[in-house]
Amino acid sequence: MAKVAREMVERSGINVNQLLELLVKNAAAELTTYYYYTILRCNLIGLEGEGIKEIAEAARIEDRNHFEALVPRIYELGGRLPEDMKVFHDTSACPPASLPKDPTNIKAMLTVLVEAERCAVRGYTHICNLTAGKDHRTYDLSLAILNEEIEHESWFSEFLGEGPSGHFMRRGDTSPFVSKFLK
Amino acid sequence: MKVFSKEELARYNGKDGFPAYTAFKGKVYDVSGSFLWKDGSHQALHIAGVDLTDAIESAPHNTEGRLERFPVVGVLSKLNTRVCSGSR
After folding, report:
1. Domain CATH for B64
2. Where are the domains of chain A?
3. CB-based contact A99:A40 (threshold 8 Å)
4. What is the pTM of this model?
5. Which class would CATH give A3-181?
6. Tens digit of pLDDT for each residue in A104-128?
7. Which one of A126, A127, A153 would you mutate to disrupt binding with B, by most B Cβ within 10 Å of its Cβ?
8. Number of H helices, E strands in chain B
């Protein structure tokens, strides 16, 4: 635990225990999404499914990276992860990104993917709003994650025909925004 | 439609076997079935059993649209006093 770091956040007026609960819930959302995306990715088959598989894989790996990046901040601030994995799953800030009843329905698959990303975008926007100008490190981390979640949302949204994402798929390494927290 | 006083609504906090109800713009919604309202708590910031109209003005989502998926179980009394249960 980083005692002075926590004290500085407390003095800024942030309810640190409430912030920690939010961080744990979002860490749970990242790890569970990584798990559920694994199942979605395995089921992205056929001409249409294969076209989305690579982008779903990038989102899957980056969500795992988000979990890895969040955990140190939780412990720095005096928090911890639940010992029981089932409790951790159920505390998630986002509903399970479960496989649709018909996995060959690509629109249904994309809807699951885009809804998961939208939940994450809402969550990190909220954490950024809570911490802006107060808890600089959590803000910096949440903003980095938010940047990637927004890109994920726009990729899947583009495949749904909602409009252009405005950017390309990842070229090279994953997590261009969050990687600085993983070194 | 059932009319809830604020005190009555407070009993539906999602704990001790009670369902989780929340009020928004005069309507009372049953959010018990939502993954995001487990144990009557939402995103570590909101609790069930209260009128969230003011509290979630800054929510990062279209609240009205998201609540529409849940059943409306009543309306919130405009009076700040206990009212009789049941229809009016």
Report:
1. 3.10.120.10
2. 3-181
3. yes
4. 0.87
5. mainly alpha
6. 999 999 999 999 999 999 999 999 9
7. A126
8. 2, 6
